[in-house]
Amino acid sequence: VNPTFIIARKRDGHELADREIADFVEGYVGGSIPDYQMSALAMAIFLQGMTAAETTELTRQMLASGITLNWPHDGIARVDKHSTGGIGDKISLILAPLLACCGFQVPMISGRGLGATGGTLDKLEAIPGFRTDLTVAQMKSITEQVGCVISSASAELAPADKKLYALRDVTATVPSIPLITGSIMSKKLAEGLDALVLDVKFGTGAFMKTLDQAGELAQSLVDVGKRMGLPTAALLTDMNQPLGRMVGNGVEVIEAVETLTGNGPEDLTELTLALGGELMTLAGKADSRQAGVLALQAHLDNGNALAKYQQMVSSQGGDPEASLSIAKQSVVTANRSGYLVGVNAEQLGQAIITMGGGRRVMSDPIDHAVGFETLARIGDEIEANQPLVRLFSHDHSRDEATKIIQQAFQIDDEPARPIDLIHEALR
Ligand code: URA
To answer: DSSP letter string over 244-262?
Structure first.
């Protein structure tokens, strides 16, 4: 088929046939369809959308561009969690070892920071020696020996996504629900999973700014998971303020370790356990989310989760005992009294980029030592000059980061309701 004809059909709002989607993706990955035609199709998809059947076929073809991990039929369930990204989201570091303690295997493929949101791989690389560029064989063997691994997507797993994402990034076609669905689900399906839970975030620090948009994305992800035979659930969660207190790279690893000992912030612990509990229900290992939460909590309290995390870090070349280098401390204070009514979490992510803890372009190096700790939550009463944030920064970017952070905290005369973290579950 002529690629121009397929682009025109999508441009005019028609539903593409499976064969058309398959030919286009195969042609693009194989090199016979050039970037400019894929760009045009991506924009047509962005503007016209796709049906669940089309999105599923797109995902299937992106998955088929690479290999799928295959596991022995040994009764062990392989599971994973994926988050659409937020500020202070270090849940993967806690949940992967925690699930391994419950007898699951977790072959987690993670990403780097995108825009203002941090990435799990960048955080883990704050640990001296930690390697995230594992081969498929290394990923498999650590998963089987330790129970969990966190690595980057190698060229063998869903290579279509790597190529297409780079193109979307420079053609303003990233925020398209079918394209995001294909991107996320092709990578997760390549892990050869038995169950998947998604943390779909909405709010000032999320990709999707509104609950409606996040709900639509969550439904698309769950639909494609089901149509591809993978039991999938999604929680819609609030990202209108950072998750936990620490934001950055090294400081988030420190907070994840605290949480693994059962001493983490309440919101971070609650969401980690809820996602894990949901996954245990999906995999048939718990009768309800609450039963799963109790089983998981026991492994935080008895030290098993921390030991499993340390084992994973060692097996990936990292030193779990190493103290992480953290930049010099200062405080950001409130410029007035009142109540904390809102936080621009995306701006807080920008402050991290300003300090060098995130990227402007993909090739930027990451400074793992910078970050901050939030000292106030939405709903709190605030006094003028009270510390809002403990900043970890270098001299050259401290003033600019302080200014951005101060502006991100919205203080008003009337109190606001504290945030409900978990909104809804889709199954
Ligand atoms: N995360 C992904 O992996 N892909 C997208 O398209 C968006 C977010």
So the answer is: SSEEESHHHHHHHHHHHTT
| CA–CA dist 393, 368 (Å, integer) | 10
Q: Is the pLDDT of residue 255 over 80?
A: yes
Q: What's the CA gap between 54 and 223, in Å, rounded?
A: 12
Cα dihedral 305, 311, 316, 322, rounded to 10, equals 90
C-alpha span between 323 and 367 (Å, rounded): 16
The four Cα atoms 257, 260, 266, 268 give a dihedral, to 10 degrees, of 70
Residue among 81, 92, 174 whose CB has most ligand 1 atoms within 8 A, to mutate: 174
Instruction: Verify whether ligand 1 is closer than 6 Å to residue 389 (CB atom).
Output: no
* CA 293/CA 310 separation, integer angstroms: 22
Q: How many CB atoms lie within 10 A of CB 310?
A: 17
Name the band, by pLDDT with cuts 50, 70 and 90, for residue 118.
confident
Strand-pair partners of 381:
339
341 Cβ closer than 6 Å to some ligand 1 atom = no
Say which of 161, 194, 199, 223 is annotated catalytic: 161
* pLDDT (tens digit per residue) in 214-245: 999 999 999 999 999 999 999 999 999 999 99
